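The protein record quoted in full:

***
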Amino acid sequence: MTTILLADDHNVVRQGLRALLEAEPDFSVVGEAADGLEALKLVERFSPNVLILDLKMPGLNGLEVVRQTRQRRPETRIVVLSMYGDEAHVLEALRHGATAYVVKGATAADLIRGVREAVAGRHYLSPPLSEHAVEAYFARAEEAALDVYDTLTPREREVLQLAAEGLTNAEIAARLSISPRTAETHRGNLMRKLNLRTQTDLIRFALRRGIVTLNNSDPE
């Protein structure tokens, strides 16, 4: 039996995915998460064979969930299910450790195949992404130069997203179960590493990187 964890901030999407996946006799959905931080907790709790997640989620973005899942539970295969099918998003997801990438405009059969390919340890890109380009995508992802964002610790990335979403140090501390002073320290360290001086700089950086969207942050 293949155990699957779903991570998407839209209830209706998760409900549809659960119905679709559990129609397969060898698939079992063991949990659902509505934000990135919850997804990581459930990955550690259930150790699913497959994590299916969206890239754009509150609390912790999908790319960081991919990265931390690969570090904490490397045996869990990751299938990104996203509305973004451009090369930049695909390369970032693969570089962070995703096994398969399925665009939300693909068919149900494409998603099922993506899960099965991931379980088998094979990489998969759904149409309209070219299957023949899989190796080229991964080669380019591996060759991508290290950027300054990669110097942040996992905790600093968590603080970055929550700060960009407008949370105060006290609110970040409560969300991450750390002290406000520790949250403040992480915030200062990440701003120094990224050469950011103000909250506006932080938000604009997060927007450029796709960590948050205008729906949950205001760059002004």
About this structure: The chain has two domains: 2-143, 148-208. The CA atoms of residues 72 and 204 lie 29 Å apart.
